[in-house]
């Protein structure tokens, strides 16, 4: 069935360092891969997304890469700041309705 | 406020009671999704609507759960005969058909005692 695996489950970095979160997906029909940031008690907020016809996308300090052959995609955050501390979720969907299948989440802690 | 809204934000109920939650999507969005999130996990898909039609329902969803979107605008999610295992955050999201981006509401946190 459809499944998204996300690693690591927790990640602690020093302010200014980079953080990388990795996801793999099982459904080869998946063609849309968003990343959400969720702060404690708040709604998930989209931070970046990528579609299957693109291998990499960047938005300021955040970038996402996609390897369709290997069925994995990654989130890269550079020059991390304490306000980047949150839980990050990857997700995947296909064109059949657009439901999102989420990973288990990564709790990122950026220490000042 | 033009974002997705949900009501109530919190609900405490006793086991066996029925509960109903409401979601108001972004006004021009014709797709509406319900997800459930338990502590330390990612949101889990429950069901979705395009306009008033319920197009998909998770196979894992108990038949105690029912959702409606009668006029293609707001949606309700009802849980009958609640169980302690139903305790979770219930999230609603909306999108435009043909556009993948889903915008989430603040969620309804349910606690079943």
- Rg of chain A (C-alpha, Å): 13 Å
Element order of chain A: H for helix, E for strand: EEEEEEEEEEE
Query: Kindly state the mean pLDDT of chain A as a whole number?
Result: 94
Question: pLDDT average of chain B, as an integer?
Answer: 94
Please tally the β strands of chain B and state the result: 11
Which shape of chain B, going by the Cα principal axes?
Answer: globular
Q: Count of helices of chain B? A: 0
Shape type of chain A: globular
How would you sum up this structure, described in words?
The complex is a heterodimer of chains A (112) and B (113). By secondary structure, chain A is an all-beta fold. Chain A has strands spanning 4-7, 10-14, 19-25, 32-38, 45-51, 56-59, 62-67, 72-77, 86-92, 101-102, 106-111. In chain A, strands 2, 4, 5, 9, 10 and 11 form a six-stranded mixed beta sheet that branches. A five-stranded antiparallel beta sheet of chain A has the order 1-3-8-7-6, with no helix packed on it. In chain A, a hairpin with an 8-residue loop joins strand 9 and strand 10 (101-102). Chain A is globular. The model of chain A has no long low-confidence stretch (mean pLDDT 94). Chain B has 113 residues and is an all-beta fold. Chain B has strands spanning 5-7, 10-13, 19-24, 31-37, 44-50, 53-57, 65-68, 75-79, 88-95, 103-104, 108-112. Chain B is globular, with a radius of gyration of 13 Å. The termini of chain B are far apart. The mean pLDDT of chain B is 94. The A-B interface holds A 4, 6, 32, 34, 36, 42-46, 49, 51, 89, 91, 93, 97-105 and B 4, 31, 33, 35, 40-45, 48, 50, 55-56, 91, 93, 95, 100-107.
Give a quick set of tags describing it.
heterodimer; A: 112 residues; mainly beta; five-stranded antiparallel sheet; 11 strands; B: 113 residues; seven-stranded mixed sheet; four-stranded antiparallel sheet; globular
């Amino acid at each position: 069935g459809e499944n998204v695996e996300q690693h690591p489950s927790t990640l602690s970095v020093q302010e200014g360092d980079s953080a990388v979160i990795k996801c793999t997906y099982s459904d080869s029909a998946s063609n849309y891969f968003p990343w959400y940031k969720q702060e404690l008690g708040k709604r998930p907020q989209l931070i970046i997304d990528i579609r299957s016809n693109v291998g990499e996308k960047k938005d300021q300090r955040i970038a996402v890469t996609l390897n369709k052959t290997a069925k994995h995609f990654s989130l890269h955050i550079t020059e991390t700041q304490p306000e980047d501390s949150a839980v990050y979720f990857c997700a995947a969907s296909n064109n059949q309705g657009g439901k999102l299948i989420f990973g288990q989440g990564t709790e990122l802690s950026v220490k000042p | 406020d033009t974002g997705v809204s949900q009501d109530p934000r919190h609900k405490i109920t006793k086991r066996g009671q029925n509960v109903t939650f409401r979601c108001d999507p972004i006004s021009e969005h014709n797709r509406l999704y319900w997800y459930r999130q338990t502590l330390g996990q990612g949101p889990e898909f429950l069901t979705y609507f395009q306009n008033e039609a319920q197009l998909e329902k998770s196979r894992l969803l108990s038949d105690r759960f029912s959702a409606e979107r009668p006029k293609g605008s707001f949606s309700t999610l009802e849980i009958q005969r609640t169980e302690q295992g139903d305790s979770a955050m219930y999230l609603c999201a909306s999108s435009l058909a043909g556009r993948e981006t889903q915008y989430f509401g603040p969620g309804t946190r349910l606690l079943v005692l």
